[in-house]
Amino acid sequence: MTNTIPSAAERIVERLSKEFDVGPESIARIVIAVEEGTEPARLAYHPTETRANAHGERMPPDRVYGIARRLEELKILEEHRSVALAKLEGAGKLDENTRERALRSMRLGELDELLAVHGLSAGAMTGQQARANKAREQGLEELATMLRERKIPEGQDLYAAAEAFVSEEKGIADAKAALDGAKAILVQDVAADSKLLSLLREQKLKVNKIGNGKLPKGLQPLIKIEKKATAIRAREFLAIKRGIRQGLLELKLSLAEERAHQLLAEHFVSDLHDPSDPLRSFWDSLLREVWIDVLRPRVEHDLIEGLRERSEHIALQVFAERYADLLDQPAVGRRRVLGILPSLHKPARLAAVDEGGRVLHRASLDLSKAENLEAAKTQLLEMLQRFAPEYIALGNGFGFRDTEAWLMEAMVGLEKRPQLIIVDEAGSAEVAKRKRSKQELAARRATILARRAQHPLIEWARVDVSSVPLGEGSDEVHQGHLSRRLGDVRSQMLHERGLDLAEAQEDTLELLTGISSEIAHELQKQRNAKDGPKKLADFVGKGAITEEAMEAASPFLRFTGSEEPLDQLRIPLSLYGLVDESATLLSLTRAQLLEQKELVGRIEASKLANDQRSEGLVSFVLHELRGPHIVQQRRYEDVKFREGVQSLDQLEIGMELQGRILRLLDFGAFVDLGLASGGLLHVSQLANHFVDDPLQIVHPGQVVTVRVLEFDKNKGRISLTMREGDIEKIPQTLGDIASNKRRPSARVVDPKERREQRGDRGPSSRFDSQGGRRSGQRRDSGGRAGPGGAGGRGGPGGRGGRDERRGRRGDDRDVPFRRGQGGYVVESENLSEEIQKDRGAKGELKSFAALAGLFGSGDDKKPEAKKEEPKRAEAPKPEAVEAQPETPQAETPQAPASEEPKAESAPAAAPAAGTNEDAPQENPTPSPEAPEGEQKPFGEDFV
Questions:
Q1: Contact between residue 312 and residue 474 where contact means Cβ atoms under 8 Å apart
Q2: Distance CA 592, CA 594 (A)
């Protein structure tokens, strides 16, 4: 450590070394470089920089940027610490313990508290501090000690003891004035008690409502908060802060005044038990005063300030991650794009741009009136045919949902349909206003949306960080800290990936290290000139940029179309000669070396290193020569819409389709399938497991493979699923029809549920566990023999088999019903037909469902209608059943010849008694049981 660094700088270096686990020498080099004005980007990314190296290796960029940010914070803290140490030393109170406490304090509030303990203040003194200091100067500290240590002479009251300190020379007029002075000293001492402060800081904070007005929905849950400061989450505190700023909430200690007085009394006057004792009364008055005037405001401020610092630290990290995700959005790249700025009551603005972002055509479409829609469709199709954009970038402003629906319908049937993506409009107006142009603002915004789809990093970097959509709570953090943090994220990403000088705008170029706003303006001007530079070195020759600035910026600039191939790499201009030396070692020219990159591996870096360039720098150049290693922007995946599917009429349940996620909502995601209607992917259909947030599974712009779960041709709605498993239809029940309830018509059967139904996990019913017949097996038709009694075909006087007694068929016993036992499933739309089928041999009703249907049937409510005698139902074709081995008991005994069939004259709505019911009936098979908590795929009203 050099002697030129002041003591404050030494403390900063020591602290940074501990926090970032980096050696003091490396920290000192970075501190000096930043103090000299070197940007963190140059220290972190420039290949010739070595000041940010640690142990011979380049320090991670995150750490370099973090050190630079923390340096600014510590400089403020250390300046405050230096002032506190000077005041304590000037007052003669800087003993060893005080010095250690001052050096150990890491918050401004702790240093202010330390000064207050000794009657000092970093700023102007408060009234209480002034009174205590004056009392000490008057010599009343001895009286305060007597009162603190209960050393009042026997036989004297407080006023008699205070009479000894009355002095007109010192300004103490009477005993009351002496007691007031001693009280001021004791108040200061009580407020500085560290054990008491620690106890009070463990108390809870409570959110209180101000006024009788109704709170906004987002603030209502906050009034229930009452917990310790360390238990309040960052998101909760930012919401509380918003409520405080709006004058709706307040955050206070939940400790009541009486409870606080009890805590203070236990801490200071636990030995004074007699309430009538004048000394106890004096202390009670003192403790109430110190709580109301000093302790409560101080403890509340300390707790809330500590909570604010912790919450802001967490919030800044969250907002930085969100901003990084925004900059790292997938890009369309060098493709033609049609940008559309939607509007609710005004014409939508369109801008078609080419692969380089240059405007090809601008137009407007009036979609606000129905009579203009056909003309707008013709105009759109003409633009699509003329300029052939591969993507359409639709803004997410007012009216975008109507515009989205119109676009999807208008493009149905196109041979080369452009792919639709949604682009955030935030900040586009602010960027569009910077440039004066003959084109109106809305037209320029449409152009920005198209370019934002091509290069989101470049276009979002142009937006001021104060206009970036970060979500709720971004207004409640320190805006200076937020801007600095977001600026670092933007700088890191730009320097990692670099900019293409052939496309970058002026306001983006100036964000690179070494390039000022004036240089950026000249670079863009020279680039757009007719006889512009052909390579990066030409910009220096024409005076657009200085040689020093180009040396700093060249590793982060590419120049598409340059005559110099090295302009596509991250090699500074000053190291182009090193490339020639590398080629000479292999007896090649520069062009030959670039064409045969596999030969670069034969070059040893040590042979090219010297005093001016390290071996690490040479290794970096050789690494770049093997191929450009710039981090590439993620690209949008092209979706392949299913051929031959252009309308809902061509859909089938279970059909597999590919689509793109257009937008996310709390209940799911909307998917572009290439049809006139988008599909809804409900949150319950995203995965086989529970999903709380759709963003956990999918993100906007993602290409997904889905299956059709159900669709409504009349309303143009499609329900999709990404869950694994078979899709089976859910028949509608009589109860659903009677109550006019709409329920899902299909569901995905989880493979685990299917295995359980098949019995793969052991006995699944009481028949299996008791060794009985499995579901679907035919039971024996013969009954047991007996001495007498009515029977079916069980023999003389025997008891008939259970299947002969018109009970429920055995092959239906184990099939669960969809909504509990007893549900009657209806496949036919003719309710009367179903009700008739559910009658017995004599026309009696066989179920409550049939009875309910009877009351709701139109036929039964018309007595004047002539009732026709129901015809005997034709026996349906037998269903295929599993073959069973024949046994002697399976043979059906013949009935006596004298016995006449009883059901001959009865209505044939159901099988007559004594007939064989082994043949399957027309009663539909109940559907499988639906899972609990079944989600409606389209929300409450088919969203």
A1: no
A2: 5
What torsion, rounded to 10 degrees, do the Cα atoms 764, 728, 698, 633 define?
Answer: 120
Name every residue whose Cβ is closer than 8 Å to that of residue 513 and which is 6 or more positions away in sequence: 39, 41, 42, 46, 495, 552, 553, 556
Domain count, the chain: 6
Tokens of 290: 């110190």
Q: Domain of 290: which CATH number?
A: 1.10.3500.10
> What range defines the domain where residue 75 resides?
1-124
pLDDT reported for residue 847: 59
Q: What is the mean pLDDT of residues 381-404?
A: 92
Domain end among 454, 487, 516 = 454
Tokens of 483: 């801007």
Q: State the pLDDT confidence band at 423, using cuts at 50, 70 and 90.
A: very high
pLDDT digits (tens, 9 = 90+) for 109-118: 888 878 877 7
Phi and psi (nearest 5°) for 31?
-60, -45
692 has a pLDDT exceeding 70: yes
Q: Which two tokens stand for residue 561?
A: 């179309």
Mean predicted confidence (pLDDT) in 257-276: 88
* Separation CA 575–CA 663 (nearest Å): 47
HSE toward the beta carbon, residue 630, CA cutoff 13 A:
20
Give which of 192, 195, 186 is closest to 148, Cα–Cα.
186
For 302-353, the DSSP string reads HHHHHHHHHHHHHHHHHHHHHHHHHHT--B--SS-EEEEE--SSSPEEEEEE
At 63, which CATH number?
1.10.10.650
What are 160's two structure tokens?
Answer: 């008699």
Say if CB 534 and CB 668 are below 8 A apart: no
